[in-house]
Amino acid sequence: MATFHHVTPAHRIVIRVDNDLIWEQSSKSKKHYLYRRSTGEKLLVSRYSEDIEAFLRSGQKHSTPQHRTLIRQSNGIVLEQSTKSGKYYLYEVQTGRKLAVTSSRSQADGLFANFASQFSDDFEDSGAFEEEDYIPEPKVNEQNFYQVLGLNSAQSLTPEILKAAYRKKVAEYHPDRVHGLGLELQQLAEQKTKEINEAYESLKVIHRF
């Protein structure tokens, strides 16, 4: 069986080699790259050398880049928000595995709670960092997602069952159904549709569909 070895591209400069890790910088974009030489696995990409150094010091496969804010961390799961796009990112710290990306804070909170609880039966919030102008939304969890879509959490969930439930619920609040029923009902239908979409996307991530 052939053994893979990472080869530094011509447009990159090797900054440091640390055992099986190699740190490179692109002469074009000036970005910094950290790879595992034996497998070619890309561990981190950042515009800042400080991110690579922090990563190497921590011995972990994921560290929060400078362009993201750490929102909370518990049981090996981190929730970050990008200062550029505003999106929320969930990672498994020890493996560097990206678990989810979402634009919704409430959805991010729900996914964080679910993933963190999978790593420990004694899940507790670890003292989350909250932005000063952020008013916490009600916590959502997997049970809420099932209820929003009219599903029974005790039953086995498949991609087909999830999609069918999603389509049925979305049809109930379709704009054509509430057209002409007044602004208040139209706004309610819009909010319900948003909750249905969040529940659908969240369950797809949780069950890896």
From TrEMBL:
Q: Which SUPFAM superfamilies match?
A: Chaperone J-domain (SSF46565)
Q: Which Gene3D superfamilies match?
A: DnaJ domain (1.10.287.110)
Q: Which residues does the UniProt record annotate as the domain J? A: 144-208
State the Pfam families in the record: DnaJ
- Native organism is Desertifilum tharense IPPAS B-1220
This protein's name = J domain-containing protein
